[in-house]
Amino acid sequence: MSTQSKQSSRDHLRQEDGSAIVRAHKIPWTRLAAPGLPGLEYKLLHLDDDRGTATMLMKVDAAQQLDLHKHLGAVEVYVVSGSFYYENGEVFEGEYMFEAGGVSHAPGSREGAVIFVVAHGAVQTLDANRKVVATVDNDFLYELARTNGAVDHLERKRLR
């Protein structure tokens, strides 16, 4: 057995200094059960409650259109596979997008996508009158993933 295949079969590694190696392939996908955000699954890779950031892999179903939602903080996205679109254009495999905080939009995907996401704050889903329907923050993401058995690699200082 090669060194590489031995490493890939190991469990997640958390160091005393706070560093971690996360075996993303071992984390089950969690369906994002939030009003207005259908067709999304995610794998939490890291949560930073002090900064309010969530780092995750996200899978977008094909032929999916999300409802209008607002990002309270900036969002960084790298498209691993597939593509997604929204009012400002389309983002394809191998491309990076930075979205400023406070932006409201309703993205979708024709073919589906897997994206690497760093969310610097919560997301609020909005109704037709732009009234908040739901807020998806670190606690929300963590609790859904916890009920799915997908948080053993995470260490949280506290729940807010």
Structure description:
With 160 residues, this protein is mostly beta strands. It has a single domain, classed as Jelly Rolls. Helix content is 10%, strand content 42%. A hairpin with a 4-residue loop joins strand 4 and strand 5. The chain starts with a helix and ends in a 13-residue tail after the last helix.
Key terms for this structure?
7-stranded antiparallel beta sheet; 4-stranded antiparallel beta sheet; disordered N terminus; globular; 160 residues; mainly beta; 42% strand
Number of helices: 2
- Which percent range fits the helix content? 10-25%
CATH topology: Jelly Rolls
Could you give the distance between the termini? 44 Å
- N-to-C SSE string, H for helix and E for strand: HEEEEEEEEEEEEEEEH
Beta-strand residue percentage: 35-45%
What is the typical, i.e. mean, pLDDT?
A: 88
Low-confidence spans: 1-8
CATH architecture: Sandwich
Largest sheet: 7 strands, antiparallel
In CATH, what is the homologous superfamily?
A: Jelly Rolls
Radius of gyration: 16 Å
Q: What structural class do you assign from the helix and strand content?
A: mainly beta
Rough outline: globular
